Amino acid sequence: MSFTQIGPYRIADVIGTGGMGTVYLGQHVETGEEVAVKVLSSSYSREEALIARFEREIEALKKLNSPYIVEFYASGVEKEIYWYSMEYVNGETLSDCLERETRIPWQKVIELSLQICKALKAAHDAGVIHRDLKPSNLMLTKDGQFKLTDFGVAQVFATGKLTKTGGVIGTVEYMSPEQAQGKRVTKISDLYALGAVMYVMLTGRPPFTGGTSVEIMQKHQYGRFDEPNKYVSEIPYWLNEIVVKLLSKKPEDRFPDAYVLSLRLKEVQKKIALSLQDRTRTSEKTNGSFHDTIELNQDRSVDFSGTMMRDLVKNEVMRENEPSRVRRIFGSTIMLVAMLIIVIVGGFYWFREKPLLAKQKFEAGIAIMQRAESEDWLKARDDYFLPLIESDSQQGQNEKWQIKVQPYLNRIAVYSLKRDLLSSAKRNRESIHTNEIHRLLQQALRALQIGNTFLAHRTLTALSPLIADGDRFRIERELVRQILEEVKPNDLLIENRRKFVSESLQKAKRLYGSGEKDRARKICESLLDLYGTDSSVHNVIGKVKQLLAEIEKRKIE
Q1: Which helix (H) or strand (E) holds 25?
Q2: Secondary structure tally for the chain: helices H, strands E
Q3: Which contiguous run of DSSP H or E holds residue 36?
Q4: DSSP assignment of 64-93, as one string?
Q5: Which of 177, 406, 467, 468 is least surrounded by CB atoms within 10 angstroms?
Q6: Segment 260-293, tens digit of pLDDT
Q7: What is the distance between the alpha carbons of residues 367 and 372, in angstroms, rounded to a whole number?
Q8: DSSP H or E stretch at residue 22
């Protein structure tokens, strides 16, 4: 396929090729902005199923808004050439990085995995399952940021399937067992793929290999893999356990979502930092006389009482080198037993208070939600409500907290959408950077900002029927309802509007009667353009349409 321009973009070099198409480096002819342009292969342009899959990729990207996912710009069809443009990432794929480096240090793997979690959370929140997460679909910028790409086999929640029942789609080395069996995939299937990506980053090899795709798929379903720290001994135990859990055969044995996984990864960072600080303090106190030989990957004691007992042992060794009164007091067996009892009793009360802490989190979140809309609402979501939902799955409470916090999460989702739209409006972003529903919402919000409540009301009133059904636009529908409540016209404004439209109609009639048909026609067209969808002047607009039809009829005659 050869061309020099497609849509508004001049085509330069080939960036990459895949099973369905080719990605080119393009440049906007007016703005000079560099973009990536993906073009469906000409051999597929007559295959309805593949065209549908290409269009599904476009629809998936339109729904996504995250700094960790490539941004969609525009799409089109020219002479049976299907294309879309997206953000150009100046960097390399994770595959390229691994080919050069073989494997990545575990500290960096945690940082990169947290970025992938954010990308997956944004996709899953928008109702999109990627289904083909792998190193070649992860672009790494020069400043070390991941960008998730290639939603060609993504599945959008609540949409019809484009593959037959029992069909298998994806890349076998990173495919979940349920995906390999042709079963329904969920967001947890993406987490399995992330586990496989983390495995290859840590060890330089995927968890399962084989001579054929079928052999690898069977291993995903029934085989056992070697744990990562068998190949790289310095991998911390906690990180090793996370990867093993992600690669569980049963979806219910993995983490429930990307957000919960990100919390676990952050816990690993904190645990390691605390462990290193503790060793540093011990080394300084003993002036090198005490050598801590416990390795991170062997330290499996993570509970409160275990940490205290380890400290007691260290203190005992130090006191052997400190002949003092303190040593004589704390060196006694009675004192050590007493301290152990304190630890046990303290641990008992610590864990007994956890249900109360959950209730306190809920109350703290509600207290924030009682304030005016602000960034604090996002804090209520991330610090209080979502951890409560996480506790449901951990404690098997059948969505006890999910039911309580969901109404607040819905309100936060509406606020978050409005905030993002207003932020984009301030930056004067072009409409091609978002979907059409969001563009219209953005237009209404922009009108409100400049005081044009009528335009905002007209836009949202016309938009309401288009998003009235289904769950896809639930958040957008609620935002429309809220704004319409705020800008509901009062009786005086409606009366003034009716008077103005009626007077304009009478003027058009007079002009028409005096032979000035063009001026009369322009007035009618302006009234229809401005008030055609306004239900408050519906009757007058009907008369405007009648007059315009009569003018057009006479023009033909």
Answers
A1: strand 21-28
A2: 22, 11
A3: strand 34-40
A4: ---TTBPPEEEEEEETTEEEEEEE---EEE
A5: 468
A6: 999 999 999 998 888 777 666 665 555 544 444 4
A7: 11
A8: strand 21-28
- Choose the catalytic residue: 13, 96, 125, 132: 132
CB count within 10 Å of CB 224 equals 9
Taking Cα atoms as reference points, which of 423, 429, 436 lies closest to residue 75? 436
Residue with tokens 């085989």: 223
The model's pTM: 0.52
Q: Supply 452's token pair.
A: 């044009």
Amino acid found at 14: V
Are 475 and 417 within 8 A, CB to CB?
yes
Which residues pair with residue 139 across a beta bridge?
93, 147
Assess contact for 219 and 210: CB atoms under 8 A: yes
Q: How far apart are CA 218 and CA 10, in angstroms?
A: 45
The residue written with tokens 């219910």 in the block is 252
Q: Which domains does the chain have, with CATH numbers?
A: 5-87 (3.30.200.20), 91-264 (1.10.510.10), 491-556 (no CATH)
Chain-centroid distance of CA 21 in Å reads: 25
**190 catalytic, yes or no?**
no
Structure tokens, 380: 């209520």
Which residues does residue 535 pair with via DSSP β-bridges, in sequence order?
none
DSSP tag of 103 = S
In terms of Cα–Cα distance, which of 477, 365, 457, 466 is closest to 413? 477
Evaluate whether 456 touches 448 at the Cβ level (below 8 Å): yes
Instruction: Give the 3-state secondary structure of residue 21.
Output: strand
Token look-up 């002949």 returns 323
Q: Vertex 256, ends 370 and 166: CA angle to 5°?
A: 130
Give pLDDT tens digits for 482-529: 888 777 666 656 778 888 999 999 999 999 889 898 899 999 999 988
